[in-house]
Specification:
By secondary structure, this protein is α+β, with helices and mostly antiparallel strands. It has two domains: 40-75; 81-156, no CATH class. The protein has helices at 5-34, 43-75, 141-156; strands at 81-87, 98-104, 110-117, 122-129. A four-stranded antiparallel beta sheet has the order 1-2-3-4. It starts with a helix and ends with a helix.
Length: 157
């Protein structure tokens, strides 16, 4: 079969028209899907609403990041590390009834509470800890151990 230039041109035009029709229909059906629930509004109005919501979302996300940063900073001041050491400071009493409790934050600042149990009674002592050390009172070996245990438990958790 011999195609004449006119017939070839008609076939090319036909396929070109078919491709344009398919593209137009796809675009038209996409448009209908976009405006399906908002038939009273124009596409421009819908796009403006989407852009406004996006801007509001960006502001909200910035506020959320700011709040998260504040919470992270505040959380460093909360008790994060706890160390408990039971021991027997006196040879004449049985069992490990005495204990030391270290409660410190991320910067190793907090308090060490010591309880010394004797036959006569129990004594309680508290020492302020700043960056893992007490500036006012000397820490006992057991108190140092309790602080180290608090750090170790926090690192392994």
């Amino acid at each position: 079969m011999n195609l004449t230039p006119e017939l070839l041109l008609i076939v090319i035009y036909f396929f070109w028209f078919l491709i344009l029709t398919i593209l137009f229909l796809r675009l038209y059906f996409y448009y209908l899907r976009v405006v399906k629930n908002n038939k009273k509004e124009s596409l421009v109005k819908l796009i403006d609403d989407v852009l406004k919501k996006e801007k509001d979302n960006e502001k909200s996300i910035k506020d959320i990041y700011k709040t998260c940063d504040t919470i992270k900073k505040d959380a460093r001041l909360h008790i994060q590390k706890i160390g408990l050491l039971r021991f027997n400071p006196f040879k004449d009493t049985g069992g490990d009834q005495s204990f030391i409790l270290a409660l410190v934050d991320a910067e190793d600042t907090g308090v060490v509470v010591s309880s010394l149990h004797t036959r006569v009674g129990t004594r309680w002592y508290a020492k302020k800890i700043i960056k893992g050390k007490s500036s006012e009172y000397a820490l006992s070996d057991e108190e140092h151990k309790a602080i180290r245990e608090a750090k170790l438990l926090h690192e392994t958790a």
